[in-house]
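so i finally got all the pieces together for this one. its three components total, 882 residues if u count the protein bits. some of the lines might not be protein, just check the labels. i wanna see the whole assembly predicted at once instead of chain by chain like last time, that was a mess tbh
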Amino acid sequence: MRKGPIIITAAVALFFVISWIIKSGGAPEGSSSYDAIAEGFWLTFAAFLTLAILSFLYKDNPFYKFAEHLYVGVSAAYWMSLGFWTTLVANLFPRISMTLSEWFQVEFISYQYHFWVPPILGVLLLMRLSPKGGWLSRWALAFIVGTTAGLNLPRFLRSDFIEQISSTMLPILVNWQGFGDFFTNFSLSASGQFVSIVSNFLVVLGVLCGIIYFFFSKEHKGAFGAASRFGIWVLMVTFGASFGYTVMGRISLLVGRLTFLLDDWLGIISG
Amino acid sequence: MKKEIPLAIVFVAGVFMAVQFFVPHAGSEWIYEFVMEWTIIIGIFALALGIWSLLRVSTTKIKRKMENWPYAVVLLAGLVSMIIFGMGFMGGVESYMFRHFFNHVMIPLHATMFSLLAFFIASAAFRAFKARSALATVLLISALVLMLRFNPYLGPVGDLDADLASWILNVPNLAAKRAIIIGIGLGMVATALKVILGIERSYMGSD
Amino acid sequence: MKIKIIALMAMLLLLASVGWGQEEAAIDSTVQEVIPPGPPLNLKAFDKPYDNGHAIDLTWDLSVDDGAGRNNIIEYRLMRADSPEGPFVERKKLEMGKTEAEDKGVKEPDDPNYFPREHDFYYKVVAVTADAEAESEVVGPVRGIGQWYNAGKNPVAVAVVLFTVFTIYFIFKAKKGAELYIRPLAGIDAVDEAIGRATEMGKPILYVLGLGTAADIATIASFTILSRVAQKVAEYQTSLIVPCYDPIVMTIAQETVKASYYSAGRPDAYNQDSVFFVTNQQFAYVGGVNGIMLRDRPATNFYLGKFYAESLIMAETGAVAGSIQIAGTDEVTQIPFFVVACDYTLIGEELYAASAYLGREPVLLGTLKAQDYAKALVIICCIIGFIAASFGWTWFVEQFHVGN
């Protein structure tokens, strides 16, 4: 093993221990020494993991690999445990078995026999692990895929199709009182009538050209091609807007993490 | 038989759930709610399959001493200890260790991974700067207008920027999103229909 | 002294009796001034249409003192009873000026707000002023009945039928051998090249199905693309890595990839561990996928499915690792990040069209044609609606309003 990694690992271990000792001393009054040591360890460990993940920005390294693998293992088990207690124990057992409810000390609700369907399908799904019964798992998959498809078909046709068309049917002549009124009150302000009319027209035009861009079975040539090109320009303006809008929110996330390191862990700045 | 029954299940379940949308009767609502609960419960059983897969891949890595195998040990240690703390009947998800793993391992890791986005968004913006196409320039200009408008440090840079940003959000942004959503709606419906009618069945496996 | 005390007590008694008398007189004068408001008139109660049967709709005419007359109505109270004689229970309060209400409950019998279906109810509405009330006539019996079809959703039903007819028609047409043109899509054209590049470099291909579950149509669309990609991967004898976020998605992906290897005639090359579960925690999954990108150095990364905030972390890591990246999602907010960080991006509907493009099977191309016809119909409807809305012809626009 080369010297460099050993020195770095030793330095990190040393920093970890120093931080643990210092943080163990800063426990709130009234807590036992055991609690103080434990809290010191957890806080230091959290800071270590934070720095390990941030180190990824430099390059992949053993600390990042450690944090990443720990994160994957812990989080997978976390959801498993949570799902077991909140879904199976709290929701399923009280409806299918009095014995299991008593065993897990949850209140038995009543026998609801249709609740046997999901455990049966669940067991069919687990048949994948058996070399011969794997095909049975498809029944459960078919149930999930089928219900998903059926569930989404009319719902998305409503929300992503009909309601969107309905919202696009905008009146072009906003607050129209005749040409005389239009010219006498002409203004280029954002809330003015002229801008509103142009905006409504552009919304409808943008939607139509955007839809034209998504035509697959017609060549994008001539007027159709021009409309499609206008459509992609509108899409790009939108993507830029979405990008710009998100940037600031992401920076505040980083500020939050730096605050944890500088305030909660190192105590350099006061929260 | 191995394929016909699942396809029949897909068809019946699909048609039933599609029709259910149009039936407001309480009986139909009950069935909808049951199906939703069933799906969640089946998901927990499936999670066991997931954990099995994770165990299998990690142990294979360790057994074969594949590259980076010691980290598979870290993964397994985290996985097994969290399962013991969470399901080992020592207070379950309320146990001291489970809560502390959540608060001092999962939360900081989650928040830090999320915060990496700040760096990545900066490098992505730089990448967009380097792109020389007209469309990339349009994207960049639009992004700059919005960034200037919503930066928390300077506030909107002039009324023109504020007006332009709100116009972009309310006109081209609205139009393009609507066009995309209409397309997505159609794509989803077409895919759902293909699945229900058994035209698309690649997910059913081979034999 | 005694006389003084008796006189004093007598005076006190006298004063007290005068006081009481005045108080009574004051109360009497108040009672005389209170004039009850005009009651709500013409109360009607009827079963709420197109619902689950656990609600009643009511309408009435305003009290003469609401917005007119003495204009002193504060609120209305909706009262319900099991018999015309009562007892009536208050169901809800409504602001002045309201002429309709919905008495809606839930279907769960053990819920405090349970509303029994097909049960006779009697209603009255009480107009309330600061110091008086006036009741409407009692109406009833009325009962909530669940309907078996929601006519408010007719536009959706029409759309489902139309789209299904389009699809089936074009599938039959395609099966008969009609030539169907499809325009080139850069992201799809790049798939072959990307797999070829991976083969040349001897590096794996990473396919990320995203954070969707099997309940997301985008994920189902991604399975169909995965199946085409896996088939090509099997033909080219390249290796494939599919890290999964959801265990059910993993199970389906395993079936899909296995089937593709079989249909490519290379069942022996299929490795079950190439499709594996990572975790179903968003950023832990990102960490795992990033690790794969940096350590296995895949030549090509596919990100097709449902993506959220993690999209940029993965796409940027892949870009830094030097992989060719092809992305596609229907999450509108994430498309910009893929556009910036990936070589090719399938925008929205293009994700759903990709499987037909890759498979080139007439049946699938037929559905693309059906989608295009539906879009043409959308454009026509939008133009007519735009003109109709501009000239105030509301009938056409209202045909697209969907009820709850």
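The first strand of chain C starts at residue 41 and ends at 47.
Residues 14-27 of chain C have pLDDT under 50 and may be disordered.
anyway lmk what u think
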